[in-house]
Amino acid sequence: MRVTCLTPTWPLSLPWTRHSFYPRAFKLRSLSHLLPSASQPLQRHPLSSQPRISRRRLLTLAIETSCDDTCVAVLEKDSGAGGAARLLFNKKLTSDNRAFRGVHPNVAVASHTQHLAPMVREAMRSLPETGAEDGGGGIRGTREDMVLVDGEARKKPDFVTVTRGPGMLSNLAVGLNTAKGLAVAWDVPLLGVNHMQAHALTPRLVSALEVGKRRSSTGQQEREVADRDERSEPSPAFPFLSLLVSGGHSLLVLSRGLNDHAILAEAQNIAIGDMLDKCAREIVPASEITAGDSVMYGPLLERFAFPDSSSDIDYGYQAHPTRKAEVQTFDSGLGWTLTPPLSETTAMHYDFSGLNGRVLKVLLERPDMDVEERRLLAKHVMRLAFEHLASRLLLALSPEDAEKDEELRNIRTVVVAGGVASNRYLMHILRSVLDARGYGHIELVCPPLPLCTDNAAMIAWTGMEMYEAGWRSELDIRLIRKWPLDPKAEGGGILGASGWRNVKDDKES
Q1: Hey, is 505 helix, strand or coil?
Q2: Angle at 63 between CA 57 and CA 65, to 5 degrees
């Protein structure tokens, strides 16, 4: 089984500012089994004698401002489980923090304040026109459903989605306050969602977008067949494992359901993305650091270690067949060594600070290290960090606890998401390690690169899933700097946060 990087056939329409990211050309698995089911009543199409499925389409505008990226998206989805999705707008602008060699909160907040409102206005121009046909051949829009944009009537979003946490409080506040204003002005519900939950659900967004792409490119008869053959939910279906890796998080999660994500392992100190950024600042020559257009130096470390930008890079990597071989100290033969993190324990957590400290010590002892030796150091610090991620994944897949063993035995998918998931060397190592240790049947799934890093499309999709599950946020919700996913964690996980209301429960009572 190969790595499945979900490279879209649908246009992402991402006018990135300062960053130009493009999905990599990995083979996309067939998603035909995800086509939506017909749960709505039939209605006659005026131009055909054949019955056609009528679906209400849900529409949301989403905002993401948890760190230094200002992001807005507009997502439309056929209502119901397995409904096709269409990404109508998705834009991101990253604040310029290069002078600080890291994200400066004040700079990021100023950028959010300057750019969010114009970006929302731009996104509103992508809202469907009220005269456009709906999924059943009718015409969208009543006066209550409309919003004027540049004097033209467009469909009003059914709800507004925004990142509530985790993240930097001042940054989150810009997005949350804007979203509240829109929800009040449009008289629609608000959904304040969890940023890390959104990363875990991103592959489900990609599968729904693929369904939407196929629907728009096929004829009526094919769409009717697809409606009848539709699955009950997007792919991957729960449960699955999620490896969420970014500048702020390193989490191995058992995703059992929409709001049930059990933490199996997490970083005890710095996150892997933070470690890669710190190592890159010291390993990569200063001239290349200065020439970069971002303070996210991890991608620069990968490009420095592997200058060959082709899709068929020969990494020369051989996965270790055993745990004993995996934890051997690496000897460069040049006077320095690197020890794998937590090599003397199988404790279920991650530790990247020790490896980071060792790299800094090596460079302090060898300030005149040449470029080729620096490339060697870059390759092996990434290798050890990524093998460390893989080691806890292997331990999770072979637990000693009988109850967990039964639950994990049926896992067939591992989702890798977050900014570090865009690193191809990471994906190569994970796939190689799983194959070498007897887990070749497990599929690795990662989103296309623009959806690995922070974006509003994943926030919009999480809002869609939460909205259809009946969840709404009260208008008095507050920001959450640290918001755990695990329902057993302090605070009760996603639904443990204050301000949730479920309209399905309201109806039943």
Answers
A1: helix
A2: 160
C-beta of residue 452 within 8 angstroms of C-beta of residue 205: no
Give the model confidence (pLDDT) of 225-277 as tens digits.
455 445 567 899 999 999 999 988 999 999 999 999 999 999 999 999 999 99
Show the CA angle centred on residue 138, arms to residues 132 and 143, nearest 5°.
70
Phi-psi region of 492 (alpha: psi -120 to 50; beta: other; left: phi over 0): left
Q: With contact defined as beta carbons under 8 Å apart, do 448 and 12 qualify? A: yes
In the 8-state DSSP scheme, what is residue 339?
Answer: P
Residues 242 and 265: their CA atoms lie apart, in Å, by 11
Question: Tens of pLDDT along 282-314?
Answer: 999 988 887 776 667 888 999 999 997 666 788
- The secondary structure element, H or E, covering residue 318 is none
What value does the CA radius of gyration of the chain take, rounded to a whole number of Å?
23
End-to-end CA distance of the chain, in Å?
A: 48
Which residues fall within 8 angstroms of residue 61, CB to CB, at 6 or more apart?
72, 73, 74, 120, 123, 124, 127, 157, 160, 161, 182, 460
Distance of CA 75 to the CA centre of its chain: 15
Half-sphere exposure of 449 (CA within 13 A, CB side): 14
Within 169-208, strands assigned E span: 190-194
Torsion 332-337-338-344 (CA) sign: positive
Q: Evaluate whether 393 touches 241 at the Cβ level (below 8 Å).
A: yes
What are the backbone angles phi and psi of residue 438, rounded to the nearest 5°? 90, 15
Contact indicator for 370, 332 with CB cutoff of 8 Å: no
Q: What is the DSSP letter of 98?
A: G
**18 torsion bin: left (phi>0), alpha (psi -120 to 50), beta (else):** left
**Rounded distance between C-alpha atoms, residue 196 and residue 492, angstroms:** 15
69-78 vs 57-64, strand pairing mode: antiparallel
Is 63:449 a contact under the CB 8 Å cutoff? no
Q: How many CB atoms lie within 10 A of CB 420?
A: 30
The SS3 call for residue 478 is: coil
Helix (H, G, I), strand (E, B) or coil at 281: helix
240 strand-pairing partners: 255
CB atoms within 10 A of CB 8: 17
In degrees and rounded to multiples of 5, residue 462 shows phi and psi of: -60, -40
pTM, whole model, 2 decimals?
A: 0.84
Residues 6+ apart with CB under 8 A from 74: 59, 60, 61, 62, 87, 88, 89, 90, 123, 126, 127, 157, 460
Task: Write the pLDDT tens digit of every residue in 103-114.
Answer: 778 888 999 999
